[in-house]
Amino acid sequence: MTSSNLAIVFGPNFLWSRSTSTSLEEIAPINAFVDFVLQNHKDIYLIDVNQRTVSVD
């Protein structure tokens, strides 16, 4: 899946308001923001996922 498709699927679930329901007008900017984060995750989080090590006990 592309980052745009992932943003459409997961964006509204990551960013939502508890006080109001999300309108269709609010979904496009949310999806655009999540798409931006997905595309720029290395610059935003400054970590290379491939270099992380996880120990399994």
What Rg, in angstroms, do the CA atoms define? 15 Å
- What's the rounded overall pLDDT mean? 81
Instruction: Name the overall outline.
Output: elongated
Task: Report the order of strands and helices.
Answer: HHH
Helicity range: 55-70%
Distance between the termini: 32 Å
How many strands, what sense, and barrel or not for the largest sheet?
Answer: none
Tally of separate helices: 3
Protein name: GD14362
Organism: Drosophila simulans (Fruit fly)
InterPro entries: Rho_GTPase_activation_prot, RhoGAP_dom
Domain Rho-GAP: 1-45
In summary, what is this structure?
With 57 residues, the chain is mainly alpha-helical. It is built from three helices and no strands. Helices cover 58% and strands 0% of the residues.
